[in-house]
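Lab notes, practical 5.
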Amino acid sequence: MKRKRSMRVTDQVRQAVLNCGKTRYQIAKATGIAPPTLCRLVSGERFISPTAFDTLGEYLRLRIVVDKPRAKKGR
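Output from the prediction step:
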């Protein structure tokens, strides 16, 4: 059975921005990230700096969860 591929972290952040209930302008104003930069991130046109990524993650209260790979049966 094939394992379902996980969403990339950047895709998860995009989804969090879209689903948080705030406008991109509100998020940009609260985080200090320029609105055009945030818009390009959400549209997939551009990545943001690690510092901005951290700031956005803190604002959205995101955390990274690492899944351990499952052991293969029969080996």
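Observations recorded by the TA: Residues 9-59 form one domain. The longest helix spans residues 9-19.
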